[in-house]
Amino acid sequence: MKTTLLYIKNMVCPRCIEAVHHVLEQAGYQPTEVKLGHAQLKHTTPVDPAAVAPLLREAGFDVLTGRAEQLTEQIKTSLAEYLEHLRTARMPLTTSAFLTDRFSATYSHLSKVFSRTANLTIEKYLIRLKIERVKEMLSYGELTLSEIADHMRYSSGQHLSNQFRQVTGRSVSEFRRDLMPKRMSLDEL
Predict the structure, then answer these.
(1) For the stretch 62-79, what's the b/e string if a residue is b when 16 or more beta carbons lie within 10 angstroms of its beta carbon?
(2) Which positions fall inside the HTH araC/xylS-type domain (predicted)?
(3) What DSSP designation does 43 have?
(4) What is the CATH number of domain 4-65?
(5) Please, which residues bridge with residue 41 across strands?
(6) Mind spelling out the 3-state secondary structure of 140-167?
(7) For a tag on the chain, would you pick the N or C end, based on fewer CB atoms within 10 A?
(8) Whole-angstrom Cα distance, residue 156 to residue 66?
(9) Is the CB of residue 78 less than 8 Å from the CB of residue 98?
(10) Beta bridge partners of 34
């Protein structure tokens, strides 16, 4: 069976997968597999990304047509998976080892493509991603800052606190005082 692969931006959770699957089915396509960052379609209907793009955009997604954009989105998805690797692995890989293993490409190449396309470095994106995860954990109020720092593999609560202030412009204490802390959706990073 022949298939067509669409690379899709702004997919960050299982509900995004369901939404993309639904949009494609409503448009008359037959998705065989929808995962974060891409959808595989049966080749029975020719797929014109220009025709699918407005439908997905209406639901908050974008079709990626350029190879650099596609690779950048795949790196973003992999970095979200890397956060889980950091949390669960006894001896986690470095970011560069994780990505080079995942993509079978040099970190230098991945970094150049990412920086050029996303207008920030992989390291800065990963920091933003980690801080959004920290915000989520802080909003639950179940863990201390030290416990969160351990979960996120920071060297100390102070290091986490300093990075939090750098990224958000305010302290962890100020964030906790907010009744409704403002969090960014992952697709805005």
Answers:
(1) bbbeeeebbbbbbbbbbb
(2) 77-178
(3) T
(4) 3.30.70
(5) 4, 31
(6) HCCCCHHHHHHHCCCCCHHHHHHHHHHH
(7) N
(8) 40
(9) yes
(10) 39
69-177, CATH topology level? Arc Repressor Mutant, subunit A (1.10.10)
178 with 139: CB under 8 angstroms? no
Q: Where in the chain is the domain with CATH 3.30.70?
A: 4-65
Per the listing, tokens 């970095």 go with 79
Block residue for tokens 């379609």? 41
SS3 state at 78: helix
Structure-block tokens of residue 118:
């996303």
Structure tokens at 31: 């998705």
Average pLDDT, the chain: 89
What is the reported pTM?
Answer: 0.76
Angle, CA 93 vertex, CA 90 and CA 95 arms, to 5° = 140
Reported residue count of the chain is 189
